[in-house]
């Protein structure tokens, strides 16, 4: 089962963590993070004063460097403050995964929906297991209005080849999802989990015929805005289902993340199906691709 563990960061702890995880640095570093890596099933993210360990065995991994601040995950974890207005919030997922799509969801909540969402445990999806996300997502989908966009890895590669980086892709997807709901709910406040400075975000949207604004941004949007929390849950639920569908299509189980386990899987996939498979199922702009396609001495010996 996935776990989260937060460890207060000292210079000594920071040095040791970077030493142990530096060979496994990955793309898609979160906003305001200083270090981002995945080793096996453990993802570690360093911020200014804390280290966040995520994945199966995260608590045990964190304890190698000190005593973490433990937080139990339940269906009613820490929730968002009650806002004064109906709102539309958007969030994305899949951007740090080598395999699979990028998913963006926008969710609309009335004041009544906000109170109800709190009761069912709708909070930051990173604080929930996939099983809990599925339970909450099904309830949300039945009740609230939402807009869901899913960009396949194949399509992402085509868009990236035209000069759009990941943040530009995310900005355009967020804008589209927000606009869809704003047209239906014109009086709702717009909220977003911030992944870029506002001026940078809007710079990605230059040339768009319509831009959803103004937007309230927060770097902890899932905890600041209930609508963003709900959007994050629906988006994650969609991502899990899409990854399952991708696995059925190719007869395998695609791993999440972009660490060494993913690269080992990808090398075997290329060996069985050829290099062209990556353009169909993976985000080939990630640095992982060069390592996956590089030949080692052992590779030549096995030919």
From TrEMBL:
Chief site of localization: cytoplasm
Enzyme class: hydrolase
Annotated residues for binding of a divalent metal cation: 91-92, 193
Co-factor requirement: Mn(2+); Mg(2+)
GO molecular function: metal ion binding; RNA binding; RNA-DNA hybrid ribonuclease activity
Catalytically driven reaction(s): Endonucleolytic cleavage to 5'-phosphomonoester
Occurrences of domain RNase H type-2 (ranges): 85-298
Domain of life: Bacteria
Family that this chain belongs to: Belongs to the RNase HII family. RnhC subfamily.
Transmembrane regions listed in the UniProt entry: none
E.C. numbers: 3.1.26.4
Protein name: Ribonuclease
Keyword terms: Cytoplasm, Endonuclease, Hydrolase, Magnesium, Metal-binding, Nuclease
Cell compartment(s), UniProt: Cytoplasm
Gene Ontology BP annotations: DNA replication, removal of RNA primer; mismatch repair
Gene3D superfamilies linked: Ribonuclease H-like superfamily/Ribonuclease H, TATA-Binding Protein
Cofactor note: Manganese or magnesium. Binds 1 divalent metal ion per monomer in the absence of substrate. May bind a second metal ion after substrate binding.
Gene Ontology CC: cytoplasm; ribonuclease H2 complex
Keyword Glycoprotein included in the entry's annotation: no
Function: Endonuclease that specifically degrades the RNA of RNA-DNA hybrids.
InterPro entries with a match to the protein in the record: RNase_HII/HIII, RNase_HII/HIII_dom, RNase_HIII, RNase_HIII_N, RNaseH-like_sf, RNaseH_sf, TBP_dom_sf
Transmembrane recorded as keyword: no
